[in-house]
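User:
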Amino acid sequence: MIDTSEMNVVHVVFRREFWQLPGLVRGVEPGDTTRAGVVASHADFMLRWLSGHHSAEDVALWPVLADRVPDHLAALMTEQHQAAHEEIDAACPLLTRWRSTADVVVRESLARTLDRLHAVLMAHLDAEEQQMLPVAAEMLSTREWEHFLSVGRSGRISDLPLSIGMLRYETDPDRFRAMLADMPRPVRTVILHLATRSFRAHSERVYRSSEPPRVTDRDVH
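Assistant: Predicted structure:
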């Protein structure tokens, strides 16, 4: 059986950030294009990450599992991806308009779209973790899983420090070290330094705090 827990680590970031996004958008005052630009850049980063993650699954995970899982489960993953990307496609032009105007009407349309995306995404992550990943752990070979991970990690190099910082924030230190175990030590040292700086600066801009809300905070609000 393979270890699929790295997927759950990524999901924590998605759960945390897409929970916060609608509120961040609604918190921008009408006409405040400076703040709208900050929040819009964060939203763009997260939408790009989510799209890339789903693309990696569509290319390197679902096709491999298609003949090894029940038909209804494969169909569910495809349907949920489609529903999420309909909301992403709706959000992107609104995000572009709102970034430059901070218009209140556009802001509310964008926030409602992000609310819908969050709802769709949470249902998908729950189904993936509870139904698909246990099957994947049994059915995939180590080579197949590692290929999927390599595809999933092939995004923009410039996004890497912030992505790693976001992943590190709520991950058990031992689990996080295991995720980076294959990285040469000198490279790992540099990357972790950059990740710490990038995450802290990003959090200060977006959340006005170096310690933004965690996923567990959602359950007490």
